[in-house]
């Protein structure tokens, strides 16, 4: 603790009393307080989106969804989003339609495509972000898929034939 060292009075002079303070207990106290606050505080949890990835199935043929059993959304630059239900041969600039990120619009588009699907159990939503897309738009699209309550979706790179049509549309 604190220690006071005094000298005997010599004569009539008043001597200064030097004070020596032992800081060891203060350091210990600071360490204990630091540890207390570290262990009792709650750290912020990262905000992550849980992607429910499907289990690997061996009974379903791969790549045979069909044009009418899927809808493809292309996330573009400047908060633009396009969609189509075409294959490489049939996709034109007129077939690549634009919408916005309003949940009602995207849900309606998904619902209409689902109603027209010949095999509703194979209906799949495909999301293809371009290099110019931003993360917020991707998250908004995933939220819209969640709102539409469709569990079959995939995330893929944009194909070269889609990119060609997309670039012609945004010019």
Describe the structure.
The chain has two domains: 2-39, no CATH class; 67-170, 2-Layer Sandwich (Nucleotidyltransferase, domain 5). The termini are far apart. 33% of the residues lie in helices and 16% in strands. The mean pLDDT is 80. Strand 3 (70-75) and strand 4 (81-84) form a beta hairpin. Helix 2 (103-116) crosses helix 3 (135-148). It is α/β, with parallel strands linked by helices and 171 residues long. It has a five-stranded mixed beta sheet with strand order 5-4-3-6-7, with helices on one face. Strands 1-2 form a two-stranded antiparallel sheet. The chain has helices at residues 24-40, 103-116, 135-148, 160-170; strands at 2-4, 19-21, 70-75, 81-84, 97-99, 124-129, 153-155. The chain is built from four helices and seven strands.
